[in-house]
Amino acid sequence: MRTIAEGGRDAFYTGPLAKDMVACLKKHGSLLTLEDFAATGSSWVEPISTDFAGTEVLELPPNGQGLTVLIALNILNHFGLKSLDPNGSARRHIEIEAVKLAWELRNRHIADPDFADIPLDHLLSLKTSAKLAAMISQTSCLDIRAALPSSDTVYLTVVDRNRMAVSFINSIYWSFGSGLVTPETGIAFQNRGSGFVTTPGHPNCIGPAKRPLHTIIPAMTRKDGRIGMSFGVMGGNYQPMGHVTVLANRLIYGMDPQEALDFPRCSPESGNIRCESTIPPEVLRDLAALGHGIVPADDPLGGGQIIDLSYQNGILWGGSDPRKDGFALGF
């Protein structure tokens, strides 16, 4: 850490630290070289967005899965969520089905944009959302099982006195990433490469210098040209579902930031729905009657933080998810 503090980015991606990492990886059959590390860089990108409940929702573009959230929100725009009980089975069912459909498009299209032509305009169009919404039945559920592994992620958001907002998320994917650490410095290697597929011709097929589909998606909302809310919901494959639920809680049902995060959660997974124990039993019975397999969640689903900029009263309004370590702090 002292080396990085003194030498910055180059101290990590070149020099002794990089040599230590490349040597360690080579012992495990890696093809990565010092040249690959030195060529690593970040990209400045423009967010992608859609309108939901009269508010612009901003997500990062592919290769992240923020597009999944926007597709699901576009589908939900075709349903009158405001008239539904926030914790009722009808609202739950529609959200679950919308996210499942968005997952399907995620797994077909999201990849490294430097290597794939991702049809963003088509995927976010009214025509596409209307077609997808028409596939949702009020009496049965879709058989879509396009899931990804869960992850261990850290999210934070900060807003300063000038209302400069930062929404930041970081993860080495699984709890200990690849499970490999360098012998000299103890640097842990991520395993985001597991987001690739191995199907030749697929946009997200593994290849040289490519970035895989990844799950982490910091987000914001914007209205009248100003950022309204900076937020994120962790949980790997759960993240799109988490964003959709929290946004509906806040923008449609009027919950405050803490209420929106505390709200009982469920998530589709492998043909079933993982459900937290705080979801009412009658809701679970109704969902089961629609064909959803109900599975108790072994662990809390996800975790998140929110800062609402609350321009009307000039305060910052924060919330922190009790499901993970973290808290809301003003100073």
Features:
single chain; 331 residues; alpha+beta; six-stranded antiparallel beta sheet; three-stranded mixed beta sheet; 11 strands; globular
What's the average pLDDT? 93
How would you sum up the global shape? Answer: globular
Instruction: State the name of the first-level CATH class of the largest domain.
Output: Mainly Alpha
Q: Write down the CATH topology of the largest domain.
A: Serum Albumin, Chain A, Domain 1
**Percent strand:** 15-25%
Give the fraction of residues assigned to helices: 25-40%
Largest sheet report: 6 strands, antiparallel
How widely separated are the two ends? 27 Å
The CATH level-2 architecture of the largest domain is identified as: Orthogonal Bundle
Give the strand tally. Answer: 11
Structure, described:
- 31% of the residues lie in helices and 18% in strands.
- With 331 residues, it is an alpha+beta fold.
- The protein has two domains: 1-42, no CATH class; 48-152 and 213-320, Serum Albumin, Chain A, Domain 1 (Orthogonal Bundle).
- α4 crosses α5 and α4 crosses α7.
- It starts with a helix and ends in an 11-residue tail after the last strand.
Topology of this structure?
Blueprint: H1 2-13, H2 15-27, H3 34-38, E1 48-52, E2 55-59, H4 66-76, H5 89-109, H6 120-123, H7 126-133, E3 153-159, E4 165-171, E5 219-223, E6 226-234, H8 239-252, H9 257-262, E7 266-269, E8 272-275, H10 281-289, E9 293-296, E10 303-308, E11 317-320
